[in-house]
Specification:
There is one protein chain. By secondary structure, the protein is α/β, with parallel strands linked by helices. It folds into three domains: about 100 residues, 2-Layer Sandwich (Gyrase A, domain 2); about 140 residues, tRNA modification GTPase MnmE domain 2 (Four Helix Bundle (Hemerythrin (Met), subunit A), Up-down Bundle); about 140 residues, Rossmann fold. The protein is about 45% helix and about 15% strand. The protein is built from 14 helices and eleven strands. A six-stranded mixed sheet has the order 3-4-5-2-1-6. It has a five-stranded mixed sheet with strand order 8-9-7-10-11, sandwiched between helices. A hairpin with an 8-residue loop joins strand 1 and strand 2. It is flat. The two termini are about 15 Å apart.
Amino acid sequence: MSTIFAQASAAGKAGVAVIRISGPQAFAACFSLCGSVPPPRQATLRALRDSAGEKLDEALVICFAEKASFTGEETVELQTHGSIAVVNAVLAELSCMDGLRLAEPGEFTRRALANGRLDLAQVEGLADLIESETEAQRQQALRLFSGGLGDLASQWRERLIRASALLTVTIDFADEDVPVDVAPEVLSLISEVQTAMQAQVDGFGAAERIRTGYEVAIVGSPNVGKSTLLNALAGRDAAITSEVAGTTRDVIEVRMELAGLPVTLLDTAGLRETDDRVEKIGVARALERAKAADLRVFLVEAGVAPEFSPLLNDIIVTAKADLLADTKGAVSGKTGAGLSELVSRISNTLASKIAKAGLATRARHKEAMQRCLISLESAASLIASDAESTDIAAEELRIAHDALNSLIGRVDVEHVLDEVFSSFCLGK
C-alpha cells in the first residue's frame, strides 16, 4: 500500500497541529524531515527541515512500529506548532517525497479495519465518538469503539461454531451410530445466542435515540405559555411570544442537553379548531410531530384536560404558576417557578427509557442480528422436529453465521464501507 499523510487535528490556527504519516515509507519520510528516526513510542523533539536543509519547524515526533499503531502500519505523528503556514509547509514537503500521497477522508481508519486493528462496529463507534456532543453519547460511542459489540459477536460466534461442528458430525457419520445425541446441546447453544441477541435487538431503539437524540414536544392550547416555557428551558429567545393566540404556526426546534442526554425540544402550534388556513396547517403539523415524539409535555390551564390522551410516561403540568395560589405541579416560563422540577421529570423519564439500551446503535446492526435470529429460529425448528433435516439446519446455521460476521465487518460489507467512511474527516 502507498504511504499516506494528512493533518489529523482540526484545520485552522491552533496551539498545536498533528500531522500523521502511515505506510511502508513513513519512517523514511521521518528520516528525510528529521535526519533520524526516534525510538518507537518515545516523543522526541526534532527540527523539521525541507530537502534544501531549511528549517520548517520544531516538532515532537512519535513513531509507531508496524502492528503497534492505530493503522497497523509504520506510523509517524508530528506535533508541530499550529500555524497554518507551518502546517502547509510540512504538508508541501511531504507531498514532494516519492511514494507519499495525501490521505483520503477516513483512509487511516479504513486501513485500521483492513489490517484487523478495528472491526466495522468499532469504526462506527469511532465515528460516533468524534461526533458525540453529550455525556451519554460519549459513553455509548466509547463502549462501541472499545469493542463491546465485537466481543458479544465473538461469544455468539463461538457458540454457533460449536453448534455447527456438532451437526457436521451427524452429517459426516450419517451411516454410522453417533454415540451421543447432539440435538440437546445444539438447541441449548442456539437458545443462548437467541436470548442474548434478542436483548440487543430490543435495546436498539433506546441506543439509537442516545446517538441521534430524543424529541420532547411541548403540547397545549394557544396562549397557554408553550413558547415562553421553551425559551426558559433553552435559556434564550428561541420562539416568538405574544398574547395573540396562534402566534406559533410551525414547529420550532431547540437542541440541548438534559442530564447528559441529547434532547430536541419542540414548541408546537396551539391545538384548537381554527378557520385560518395557515394556522390549521400548523396545528396538523403540531399533532403529527407531538405524537411521533419520544415524550410529550402537556401544558394545560388549571382544571383543563389535555387536548388528546397522554401516553404512558407523558408529563402533564399546569401552566402559568405565577398566577396560581396553589403551585404544586405547576410551572411558569415567565418566573421560572417549577422549572427545575420539570427538567428533573423530563430527565428521569428519558433516563428510564435508556436503561435497556443495547450496544447496537445503527439500523445495519439491527438488520444483521434480525437476519441471524431468523436463521437460528429456522435451524432450531428443524433440529427439534425432524432428524432427517440436519443438513438443512446446518445450512441455516451457516447463514446465521454469515449474518453475524457482517455485523462486525468480516464478510459482505463492501457496500456499506463507502457510506461509513464518508462521515470521517481528512486525517482520520
